Every structure is written in C-alpha cells, then in structure tokens.
Amino acid sequence: MTESPPPVELDRALSRLFHESWRERKATVEQLVDELSRADVTPATKRTIIGRLLDGVTEQEAVHGRAACQEVLLKLGRASVAMIVQRIEAGVCGARLLVDLLGQVGSAGEVPLLVRIVSDNSTDPNLRAAAATALGGLGGHQAERALLALLSDPLVMLQVYALDALSVLGARVPVAALEQLVAQPLTRKGATALLGGSGSIDALPLLVPLLAAEMRGVRATAAVSITRLHDELVPAGRAALVRAALTQISDTARERVRELVDHADRDVRASAIRICGVVLDSDVVPQLLGAMGDAALQDLALSVVGQLGSEANPALVRTLDQADTGSREHLYRLIGASKAEVIHPKLLTALVEGLDEPDEDTACAAALALQAHGGRSSVGALYRAMAVDGPLGEAAADALGEVLMRLGGRADDLTIVVGANWPHHGALARNLCRVVVKLSSQEHVWPLVSLLGSSDVGVRLAASHALGLIPGEHEGPSALHFALADEEPHVRAAACRSLGLLKAARSCQPLLTATTDANPLVRAAAVQALVAIDNPIALARLREIIVEDPSPSVVVHAIEGLGSSGLNEDLTMLMSLCRSQDPEVQKAAARALVRFRAHRATAALLGLLDHERWDVRWAAAEVLGLRGDVTALDSVRRALAQESDELVKQVITEAAEQLAKLAETGRSA
Asked: What mean pLDDT comes out for the span 319-347?
C-alpha cells in the first residue's frame, strides 16, 4: 500500500529537525510530538512520518539531526515498534541503530527477535552487540539466558557486551561462568562487577586479589563488588567470611585500596573507605578528610576512625600537621569519632585551640570532640566558650557537662570553675543551666533559684527549665511557684512544665491558678502539668476548661486528664466531645476513651470510623484495637472494607486482628 504524503506543515517540521540551531531542533521535536499525538492524525500519515523519522535515524549523516529524529521516536513510545521490527527483519541499512532504538521503545514482545539476532553466529557482530545491549534494557528470563550463553562466544567483544547487559539486568551469574572471564584482561572488569551480585562466597577468592590489580578501574570495581557481596551475605550470617578474607590482603592491596578513597565515583569511594575500616588501615586517615564533605561518606569516615581505636592516634596526629584551615572542622569531627580510651595530648591541645576558631561550625566541631574526649585540662577553655551566644556556647556547655561527669560528676568541680558568685546575665548564665541539668545535683538548686531573679529573660527561662530536671525533694517547686507570676509568658509556661515534671503535690493549687492565665501557652502548660501530677482535685477544673477555654490546645490537654478518672460523668463528656467540630478535640477524646470499659464508649469510637478526616479515623481505629471490646469486631471489619486510605487500612486491620484474637480466646481485654 502506498503511504500518503504528510501534510505540508509536518513535512516542513521534519526538515527543521536537521536545523543547525539546537533551540530550533528542540522546539521542532516538541511540535512533532504534539502533532502526532492529536486524534485527527490519520494512521497513514502517522506511518509516513514515522518512516521518515526512521530514515533520519539510519540514513542521515548529520548526527544532530539523527538525534532529533530519535528523540521524537522515543517520546512517541511504542508507536514505531512495528515498523522498526519490520525494517530489522528486512535487513535494511542501519539495522544496528534500529536495534539500539528497539531496546529503548520495545518490550517483552520484542525479546525473541533480539535473541535470534544475538544467537546467530552468521550475523554481523556489531548488530549482535547492539542486540545484547537492547536485551539488557528489556530484561526477562529469555533475555538473561541468551546473554549467559553469549558469555562463551568466541568473540571477546560480544562477551564484553553480554557482561555489561547482564550487569544492567542485575543478573545473578554463577561464579563458574565468570571465572575464565576474570582471567581475561578485556572481560575482567565486567566479570568482576557481576561477581559482586553472585551472592556466593565462592566469589571471594576471585575478587580479593583484584584489589591489588594494576588497572585502577578493575580495583574500583572489585572494591564495590566486595562490599556488595558482603551486604548480600549479611542476612545469611556469612558476612564475617568476607571480613576475614579482607584482613589477609597484602600491603600492596591496602595501598591501592587507599588510593580509591579519592576516586571520582561515590560508590567506589564508599567501598574503599569501608574496606580500609575492615583491614584497620590507619594510613587512610589523612585521606578521609577529603571524603568528609559528603554527608554519606562522612558517616563512613567517622566509623573507620572509631574502628581503629587507639591506632587512630598517630594517624590523627599526622593529619593534624597536614590539615589546612578549611579542613579543620572535618579533622575535629574525626578526632571526636575516635574510640581510643586516651587520645594524644597534641590532639587535645588542638581541640582546645579549636574553640577559638572564627568559623562557628569549626569551633562547634572542636567542642563536640571535647565532649567525647576532653579532660580536666579542657574545663577552663570550655567554660570560657560557654559565654559565646549561639550554638558554640551550647555545644561547649554540653561538652563541659560530659567532661565533669567523666571526672566524677561532683558538684564541687563546677563550683571550682564558676566560683561563689554565678553569672546572672547572658549566654554564660544560660549555658550554666545546661551544665547543671547534666550533673543533676541538688546542690545546684539554690544557684538556679537565684537565677530566677535575673533581669535576663533567657536566663530565667533556662533556670525554670533546669529546675524541673533535677530529681528528688528540694526547694525548686517553691521557687517555681513564684515564677508562675513572671512577667514573661514563656517563663511562666516553663515553670508550669517543670512543676509537672517534679510532680510535687503542693504544686496543684498554684497550677490550678495558672489555668486562668491570660496567655494560652501558659494555660496549656499548666493543664499539662496537672495531668502529669494526676491529682483528683484537678478534675473539676479540667471539666470547666473543656467547656469554657477558647484555645483548642488547652482543651486537648484537659481532655487527656479526664482519661484516667473512670467516672461516668467524664465518659459522657468524652463521648459528646467525639462529636466536636474540631478534629483535634475529637482525636483527643477518642484517645481518652481507651481506659473506659463501658460498651457505649465503643459506640462513640465506631461513629468516628466514618469521619471525613483520615487522622480521626486512624485514632479511633487504634483505640478500638487497644480497648479490646470484641463486640466491635464486625463493625471494624465493615469499616475496613470501606476504607480507602492505606495508612488507616493498616491500623484498622491491626485492630481487627487484635479483636479477632480476643474473640477466639473467649476473653475481653
């Protein structure tokens, strides 16, 4: 049948695919795709256009025009597959390019054709190679079998293509089929890559010696394959065999693996770092600095230093002499990762000096390292750094707290540093509160109480918070009662939260008064504290808050307090709150019903399974499962059949399983 000529506009567009301007070609590609996707384009016209595009792929000398034609065909998807197959089978000129294209737009239906090509020894080797690549893209068992057979082809070129295609497929190739290919220079790299995915411990004797290979590309591939094999053997509990084999590698192999830490490919760098850690190669430490800029590699580098233990000390000292200003932050992090019981004095000195670095991140890294390794000699420097406002002061405070704990955690040690008169203003006073929290000594209660009188709001806030974290009976609650009258709402709220943590019975009345505070933040904190103290005298006030308070956050905390009362009047209130217009209130009410055993509580929860919001349905389903009322089982199952949200489905399924299990045993939780 004679193909009809394309419309004039499309014909002109086809010619513009070979325009010298990249922008013109790109615009033309989009235009042609849009035109050919229109419903009113006849099949005959479409076939003609596709034919012209295929001609452009196989016959045109202009590479840019050929690429533009191919881009249109790729965007059209399978529309050109039938004509591509027809031309390949006819043996037209440029069949190799058509096979390449088929590998990108074809599917499983085209695999048999490609298998025939790749298996025919009389076919042009270049065409067979293209078919092998295409099979790697299309995949499937038939494609994999054909590629495995190609590994024994007498033409080394075809073996290389088969190895690459099998790698793309992620095929698990038997080690025996790869052994001879590892011995051949041209196929060594491809076979090495496949050994990593073999999942067999038999690949180790072939892979490990390749870490010392002359060719950098082979070494890199071997490193990646070894770590991949290790990870695949972990579930079977055989990964230790990989680690044992690596510890036996030669000094030459160690050196050559070390060189890969600077490789351009991240996977290679990561594998090299991991192997250096396994073989405890401390000489790699200076090179780890270059990997620390990558977040994923940084964790590996830190892990290596940790694995080295005391062996890291001399390497880190050498690195100290080599590190420039820009890499000091990374060096301090490496020192901090050391698991040595005692680190070299030079390193400690460097960390102390690092606290004065002008770059905040670098100084913070020094503080974090001192948190892990600092001793008495670093106490003074850390105390001075605590006066710096921001992350450095806070990091120094955390480090000082940890150092003092290592020194015995005695309150006297901090007193010696601070002196009799504690600072009452600024970052130093705030950060002292962080140190006190770490030490948790009641001897520091009175200094904290005095800080509640500071004119610095931040200091009062820090002191209020710290008092709640010092356990035991002390004067902190009485001081916090006065803090409930502070002019700053955040301080009043912090005082409420601390009183809730301390759970002193005498705090109930001051907290009840705080529930009338003008600021909702304070009221919410006061209610939260009352719930934590769990004193029955607060119940009446909690009910009033639920009815009267305009802030949903305050109401939600009050609802939580009713959950443990077990009283019928509270059950009735919670059931009514399940019909609230505020979904946060509904969720809180649902969760509070978990301890009420009455069957009518179940009815209220079942009603929420039809709620329009997924999170409300989720909360109701979770509580239904926890309550264990087996009479809800049928309703829960019906709700599961109607549920569309996958997350809610999962929770309802778990609830149904819990209830079904209880029903089978004939008991109700």
From this structure: 90
- Backbone angles phi and psi of 94, in degrees to 5: 85, 25
Q: Which of 432, 419, 420, 486 is nearest to 463 (CA)?
A: 432
Tell whether the model's pLDDT for residue 37 goes beyond 90.
Answer: no
End-to-end CA distance of the chain: 78
Element (H, E) at 478: helix 476-483
Write the pLDDT tens digit of every residue in 565-575: 889 999 999 99
314: pLDDT strictly greater than 50: yes
Which tokens belong to 133?
Answer: 């690549």
Asked if 470 and 444 touch (Cβ cutoff 8 Å), the reply is yes
Q: Which residue has the higher pLDDT, 223 or 49?
A: 223
What separation in angstroms does the CA of 73 have from each of 43, 76, 283, 423?
Answer: 15, 5, 53, 75
What's the pLDDT tens digit per position in 419-465?
A: 878 999 999 999 999 999 999 999 999 999 999 999 999 999 999 99
Q: Please name the residues in contact with 227: beta carbons below 8 A apart, sequence gap of 6 or more.
A: 196, 270, 271, 274, 275
pLDDT over threshold 70, residue 182: yes
**CA–CA separation, 372 and 403 (whole Å):** 8
Show Cβ contacts of residue 65 under 8 Å, excluding neighbours closer than 6 positions. Answer: 17, 18, 25, 56
Residue matched to tokens 């001081």: 479
Instruction: Name the phi and psi angles at 358, rounded to 5.
Output: -65, -30
**Global pTM value:** 0.79
Q: Residue 1 contacts by C-beta under 8 Å, 6 or more apart in sequence?
A: none
What is the DSSP-derived secondary structure letter of residue 631? G
pLDDT at 296: 87
Rg (C-alpha) for the chain, rounded Å, is: 36
DSSP annotation string for 275-336: HHHHTT-GGGHHHHHHHTTSHHHHHHHHHHHHHHGGGHHHHHHHHHHH--GGGHHHHHHHHH
- Cα separation of 136 and 166, whole Å? 6
**Which H helix or E strand runs over 371?**
helix 360-373
Residue 2 has pLDDT above 70, yes or no: no
466's tokens: 């710290």
The DSSP call for residue 122 is T
Residue 296 burial (C-beta neighbours within 10 Å; 0-12, 13-18, 19+): exposed
Cα dist from 488 to 55, 187, 484, 586, whole Å: 79, 74, 9, 32
Domain segments of the chain as ranges:
1-106
Asked whether the predicted pLDDT for residue 564 surpasses 90, the reply is no
pLDDT tens digit string along 96-132? Answer: 999 999 999 999 999 999 999 999 999 999 999 999 9
Residues 129 and 401: their CA atoms lie apart, in Å, by: 66
User: Which fold would CATH assign to domain 1-106?
Assistant: Leucine-rich Repeat Variant (1.25.10)
Q: Which of 495, 550, 486, 568 has its CA nearest to residue 528?
A: 495
Q: What is the pLDDT of residue 539?
A: 94
In order, the DSSP letters of 488-504 are SHHHHHHHHHHHHHHT-
Contact 668, 630 (CB under 8 A): yes
Give the pLDDT mean for 221-243. 94
> What is the C-alpha separation between 272 and 306, in angstroms, rounded?
16
pLDDT band at residue 322 using 50, 70 and 90 as cut-offs? confident
